[in-house]
Design brief:
Helices cover 24% and strands 34% of the residues. By secondary structure, it is an alpha+beta fold. A hairpin with a 4-residue loop joins strand 8 and strand 9. Helix 2 packs antiparallel against helix 3, helix 2 runs parallel beside helix 4 and helix 3 runs antiparallel to helix 4.
Length: 492
């Protein structure tokens, strides 16, 4: 059998088959597999336990055909890889407007990596496929001889060898995909040098079935809870209408009633000196490692703030806008989604350069004009899903911006939904104000869980960039609080 009946690890005669691990074993293998659930002794295998010889030959012929398919696939990959490289170039060209001088260095760097990977991958695929083809041509004569003259034990071993070859061939059926991986903090890219963009290589098995990870429920564990009393320099009791986390874990908040932006640590203690706005801020979002975007802090517009490592907040720019914005969230590194009030367009987009635009597709959820604090938005970037809460309709709208389709989510646990944010695993977390709880939803509108919080009338909410912390504060009704929770996957 040219060594096929010997253990590849110990070079001893194969005497057992471990069903639990689908492995042919020798006596030395028993050290590992001796306690496995089912161990077949090959010496005792009978003719009845073997697969039919015709079926075995058919399986071998199929393996030979599969090898031809893999060779054909490897040739097709040349075209696919060229398309992927072209896509990489197109993505880099789109970014070039914002990153100017360093862009050319990054483009050359990524193109070089992509082309090198393409050549390497094609050579690897051709080498593997040729080797598989040669192995099959070597084994086929052995199979014919064993089928005609072999013992039951030899046929059993050979059938398992063929199964092993089949598994190896299937494992080689992968299709690489190339894409550009960009950090979120585009505003700092000019200082990062030519390695600020990396080529992202992703291989996907060419299986007809692709299993996507399903959204999972989570558990919330309260870590810190602080009261928000009126301090000496406050004109009124604080109302934290907007929250977000910086990438380093610091929490930023805007106090609507006292016109402030504050920074807090992981114990919810204030850091540095608050920034004072001219007007009442409504919402806040972190758009890079040191840049914040605030709605309502001036008059009708958006304020851009910078945050230093020593907790100094500085106004860098004021953008005057046509619409009046309430909530704000990131859509991409250069664009935000905003909810409006006193405007027939309930949601709009604004770039960091101050350009206001509307969505390409006509939003299929009701186009209505909201008053202040009647709606809020968030955006799930990986799912291209816009989320809008309608406070007094007790509804959460999920809008697919690519397909132009929407769904309205209502539930007994969703009562006066207000603040919303993106949760772990591209899910959505919504404050259910009247229920004093947080509702966890998938972008398909399924309720994943409802989490009561030790706070009355939750209003504003955010999740840390690593998805492990949640901050929530409440509305103007009730005792003002700010709380921090730990997010963990649910075990159920």
């Amino acid at each position: 059998m040219k060594g096929l009946d010997r253990c590849q690890e110990h070079n001893k005669t194969i005497e057992f088959f471990c069903q639990e691990h689908s492995m042919l074993c020798c006596t030395s293998c028993l050290i590992v597999h001796g306690n496995c659930g089912k161990l077949n002794v090959i010496e005792s295998v009978t003719e009845r336990e073997l697969a039919d010889s015709d079926e075995l030959m058919a399986s071998l012929i199929k393996l030979d055909s599969d090898a031809d398919f893999i060779i054909a696939e490897s040739k097709r990959q040349d075209s696919d890889l060229n398309k992927s490289v072209s896509k990489v170039n197109a993505e880099l060209d789109a970014i070039q407007i914002r990153i100017l001088k360093l862009f050319k260095e990054a483009q050359n760097n990524v193109q070089s990596e992509a082309n090198a990977f393409k050549s390497e991958e094609i050579n690897r695929s051709q080498t593997v496929c040729t080797k598989v083809k040669e192995d099959l041509h070597t084994i086929l004569p052995i199979c014919s001889a064993v089928n005609e003259h072999g013992t039951p034990q030899q046929k059993y071993i050979l059938s398992k060898r063929m199964e092993e070859k089949h598994r190896i061939i299937k494992a080689q059926q992968v299709t690489p995909h190339l894409s550009v991986s960009c950090p979120r903090e585009l505003t700092s890219l000019l200082e990062m040098g030519k390695d600020f963009i990396k080529l992202k290589i992703q291989t996907v098995k060419t299986s007809p079935i692709s299993l996507s990870s399903q959204p999972r429920p989570v558990t919330l564990e309260q870590l810190v809870s602080v009261d928000l009393p009126q301090t000496g320099d406050d004109e009124k009791k604080p109302l934290l209408s907007g929250l977000d986390f910086l990438p380093d874990g610091r929490l930023v908040a805007v106090d609507n009633l006292n016109k402030k932006c504050i920074i807090l640590d992981d114990r919810l203690q204030r850091l540095g000196t608050p920034y004072k706005f001219k007007g009442s801020p409504c919402s806040i979002v972190c758009v890079s490692h040191d840049t914040l975007c605030v709605t309502g802090g001036g008059s009708k517009g958006v304020c851009l703030l910078s945050v230093s490592t020593d907790n100094t907040i500085t106004l860098t720019r004021e953008i005057n806008t046509i619409s009046t914005f309430y909530s704000i969230c990131c859509m991409s590194p250069s664009h935000m989604v905003v909810s409006t009030y006193d405007d027939p367009r309930p949601v709009r987009m604004i770039s960091v350069d101050g350009v206001e635009t509307d969505f390409d597709h006509f939003l299929t959820f009701p186009m209505k004009t909201y008053k202040v604090d009647e709606s809020a938005c968030t955006y799930v970037q990986s799912k291209n899903t816009l989320v809008l809460t309608d406070r007094f309709a007790h509804t959460v709208y999920m809008h697919d911006t690519l397909k132009g389709t929407s769904r309205a989510v209502t539930n007994a646990n969703i009562q006066e939904p207000r603040g919303a944010c993106v949760g772990p695993g591209d899910t959505v977390l919504v404050c259910s104000t009247i229920k004093h709880s947080i509702v966890h939803l998938s972008v398909d509108g399924n309720i994943l869980g409802t989490y009561p919080v030790d706070i009355c009338y939750p209003n504003s909410i955010c999740v840390s960039k690593n998805g492990t912390r949640l901050a929530v504060s409440n509305s103007a009704v009730g005792k003002r609080k700010l709380q921090l929770y730990k997010i963990s996957p649910s075990m159920r």
